[in-house]
């Protein structure tokens, strides 16, 4: 099981429910612009970095930029120039965290133009490339190692994102979310979405991931032996098995069962060994990632 990289858990849900922060529009990127905000982010990241150090595992340090694209940021008062500076500041902050570990990748996070749970207006691949290119370029200029599309809901936007990343020379990872039936919110089957992105980008993505869904929602859609599953390189699952609609209506955080989540990751890892990036999404924190480590990582150090 060598080569595993860990990630953090649910950044925004942890900041809101564990630290009591107010995140308008669920946007964490403004925190990098103030000392108080950076201190909150350091408190969030500390246990993850300590865990990775203890396990000797590689780590993916995300930028706090899931909402740092034009439409969402405009609602917070950002114009193109100030948004570019915010993305750059987030990349520099992530790089500072990465220096605390021997083996860390700085990952520029790109969120969907619309809601992470609902498709909304559908862009063509060309429109999506034009939309996401400014953020991808700002992250590239600030020195991230790769960019990831997180919680994307339909294939066309993912194709555009990959084209934008390719145009600035950055490796790109696409992470789709799925509903309780294993389909994307667009109703497309997961395998079809992965194959569509690969077909329309000449297999440009470095890999695909699944995030913001519980393993119970997608495990049955992954069939051992099917070629497309080899393209799924990572998992960032939710703590709770609730649907997206139930999460939207809930005023409390459902942390689920970390040990059960770890066991589900172990089973998926055994069936799909290409899944080497392991972390969490909404509702998860360092306890969940620790349980994933306990279930999935060898007890000997991974450095060898």
Strand content: 5-15%
Physical arrangement of strands within the biggest beta sheet: 1-2-3-4-5-6-7-8
Task: Give the CA-based shape.
Answer: globular
Main sheet record: 8 strands, parallel, barrel
Number of helices: 11
Q: Give, in order, the helices and strands.
A: EHHEHHEHEHEHEHEHHEH
Kindly report the name of the CATH homologous superfamily: Homocysteine-binding-like domain
Topology:
Elements (H helix, E strand, L loop, with lengths): L4 E2 L4 H7 L17 H21 L2 E5 L7 H5 L5 H19 L5 E7 L14 H17 L4 E7 L2 H13 L4 E5 L13 H12 L5 E5 L3 H4 L13 E6 L6 H6 L8 H14 L5 E4 L5 H11 L8
Parallel strand pairs: 1-2, 1-8, 2-3, 3-4, 4-5, 5-6, 6-7, 7-8
Helix pairs in contact: 2-11, 4-5, 5-6, 6-7, 10-11
Essential attributes:
304 residues; eight-stranded parallel beta barrel
Question: What does this entry look like structurally?
Answer:
This protein has 304 residues and is an alpha/beta fold. The chain has one domain (5-296): Alpha-Beta Barrel (TIM Barrel). It is 42% helix and 13% strand. It contains eleven helices and eight strands. It has helices at 11-17, 35-55, 70-74, 80-98, 125-141, 155-167, 190-201, 215-218, 244-249, 258-271, 286-296, and strands spanning 5-6, 58-62, 104-110, 146-152, 172-176, 207-211, 232-237, 277-280. Strands 1-2-3-4-5-6-7-8 form an eight-stranded parallel barrel, surrounded by four helices. Helix 2 packs parallel to helix 11 and helix 5 (125-141) crosses helix 6. The N and C termini lie close together (11 Å). Residues 300-304 have low confidence and may be disordered.
């Amino acid at each position: 099981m060598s080569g595993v990289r860990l990630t953090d858990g649910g950044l925004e849900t942890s900041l809101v429910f564990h630290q009591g922060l107010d995140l308008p529009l669920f946007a964490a990127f403004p925190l990098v612009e103030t000392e108080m905000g950076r201190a909150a982010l350091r408190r969030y990241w500390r246990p993850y970095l300590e865990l990775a150090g203890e396990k000797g595992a590689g780590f993916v340090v995300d930028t706090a930029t899931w909402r740092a694209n034009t439409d969402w940021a405009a609602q917070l008062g950002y114009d193109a120039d100030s948004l570019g500076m915010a993305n750059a500041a987030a990349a520099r902050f992530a790089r500072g965290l990465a220096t605390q570990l021997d083996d860390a990748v700085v990952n520029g996070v790109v969120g969907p133009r619309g809601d992470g749970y609902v498709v909304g207006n559908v862009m063509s691949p060309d429109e999506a490339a034009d939309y996401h290119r400014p953020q991808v370029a700002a992250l590239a200029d600030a020195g991230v190692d790769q960019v990831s599309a997180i919680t994307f809901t339909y294939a066309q936007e993912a194709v555009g994102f990959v084209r934008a990343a390719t145009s600035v020379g950055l490796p790109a990872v696409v992470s789709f979310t799925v509903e309780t039936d294993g389909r994307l919110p667009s109703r497309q089957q997961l395998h079809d979405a992965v194959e569509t992105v690969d077909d329309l980008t000449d297999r440009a993505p470095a890999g695909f991931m699944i995030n913001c869904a519980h393993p119970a929602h997608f495990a049955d859609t992954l069939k051992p032996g099917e070629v497309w599953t080899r393209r799924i390189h990572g998992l960032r699952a939710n703590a709770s098995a609730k649907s997206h609609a139930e999460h939207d209506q809930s005023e409390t955080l459902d942390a689920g069962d970390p040990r059960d989540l770890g066991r589900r990751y172990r089973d998926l890892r055994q069936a799909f060994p290409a899944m080497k990036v392991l972390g969490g999404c909404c509702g998860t924190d360092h306890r969940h990632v620790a349980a994933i480590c306990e279930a999935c990582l060898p007890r000997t150090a991974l450095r060898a």
